[in-house]
Amino acid sequence: MKKIMALVLMSSSSIVSAQWQALPETAPAPADNPTTTEKVVLGQTLFFDPRLSSTGTVSCNSCHNVMAGGDDNRAVSMGVNGHLGGRSAPTVWNAAFNSTQFWDGRANTLEDQAKGPMTNPIEMGMKNHHAVMDRIKNIKAYKVLFQQAFGDHKMTIDQTVKAIAAYERTLITPNSAFDQYVKGDKTALTSKQQKGMQLFANIGCVSCHSGAAFNGQQDIKIGTPVLMKFPTFENNAYVKQFDLKADKGRETVTGKQADAHMFRIPTLRNIALTAPYFHNGKVSNLHTAVKVMAKTQLNRNLKQQQVDEIVAFLNSLSGDFPKQTMPRLPATENNTLLN
Amino acid sequence: MKKIMALVLMSSSSIVSAQWQALPETAPAPADNPTTTEKVVLGQTLFFDPRLSSTGTVSCNSCHNVMAGGDDNRAVSMGVNGHLGGRSAPTVWNAAFNSTQFWDGRANTLEDQAKGPMTNPIEMGMKNHHAVMDRIKNIKAYKVLFQQAFGDHKMTIDQTVKAIAAYERTLITPNSAFDQYVKGDKTALTSKQQKGMQLFANIGCVSCHSGAAFNGQQDIKIGTPVLMKFPTFENNAYVKQFDLKADKGRETVTGKQADAHMFRIPTLRNIALTAPYFHNGKVSNLHTAVKVMAKTQLNRNLKQQQVDEIVAFLNSLSGDFPKQTMPRLPATENNTLLN
Questions:
Q1: Residue A309: active-site member
Q2: Which residue among B25, B38, B111, B123 is the active-site one?
Q3: pTM confidence score
């Protein structure tokens, strides 16, 4: 339980000092993977390339759709051959501001995360990373893109995920109504949204959902999971109704009972766009999600008006999505890698 | 057999008058669906929207990937829930120059074609077009896009497919090496490619693959299928090896035995990018495809050098792909339509 304590203490102090913060327009990159234009170009191309999956039908973008809210609006994702995933796809937008990746925080970095789905049999279904790199190496024009991005054409899995992570670090949505408000435009939020914002702070949502990304991970060292038990309070009908105890969360990674039902605190940026909600995607609308959260995490019964106000506030967290040019997927001329 | 005769006569005369033609940079639109920017914007958005499928995982672009050669590089496509299609997805690039759509020409127009996959249980799997429109109507921002495109917000299936078709009419790839050559730049093709071009004409490929799009459909009234029997010559091992008699082609549409194994003549534009080949996608590389075509359609045994030359020529038909901005898929705020 140490982690939870630490979290509560940290966020209590942050309420005083820096409660509301605009989203930064750039994300920090690790020392061994500085963001460059060439890497971003390669990474975007790889992100959209379905040939990184066994069937050639599933790209990173299939479940983390950047033309939308960065997820797939499904309860759980559908991978190769119609296989269903075990958890709801988290958004890739602003994922650069998470201190760890996946619902259970099992990947320290965006780079590590990108390795996972490729070889997951129910996601992209590749046999191993060697098979992934075989595919990529057989697509001639990738050699040039790797050369431009890394100064060589070794074309390794580490380079591949570095490029994907570099692209993902550009996926930031600044300038939401909330951000404009925080920066001084007091007309940017309606009075209903302002009431919701106050409520969000007063009832304690902000204890976990703090910082610019509302994920409690501000200034947390990359690689440190920031987790919370969900559900914390079980004395309510929601637990059964939405099957909230089925998934053991981080316990499935560490095997420790103390990690049972511990999940990474998700960002609330663009939350209005990423229904359905929670790790299992069992709640299809945000009003219900707010009610469930208040009850299971804060043991509070919100009135409908309060729910509406908080939802109105959460809708102010939808930001500007940068215009993107579609990548061209390099061809395997006169041949296919899929069969 | 009348159709085949007509075709041969037509192309013989076209060899004399207008054998080699550059690809037009715009496609004609039907009188009842003039191409407008607003329609193209709506159409592009719909084309990329996976919510037009039952599972929310398959968009038009899934099988007709415009970031690539306009298909999926698979033998047969994979629709919702991992279902496999019966034929290989034709490219959407330059489809505006086809006089009919689908391998068996069963849709007269791009508009008609767009209706098909949505409700095909193994493609996008929607129950009916009413269900498709229910989805679209429940995505608020589409109302604005329809209003801008059509001056009203009736939001009908006909408007939906008109917008998609309008977008598809912009998917043209001019300025290939071949086009530059035809327009007078005699250095645009290598001597090997020029030899292949000559061979392509001399041995008779051009009898079917004529006109700017190499699909025999130049100046053919939209709605008129231009078909050829494949295989025409069955006295070879390829028929069995690549299972060329399994699919009855147009007979499956008309029920007429005379239509057995009749298929629309596919464009050869960007053919190097759209492996595997043929209606069944059984041939994974272009060299083999050329050999098979020569034998089954012209009863010719090509030497390896001749095959190489024709393939080199066919590689000159890869054009310029217009830069595209990614669409933003309008959200269903605070809710999902998928479950």
A1: no
A2: B123
A3: 0.95
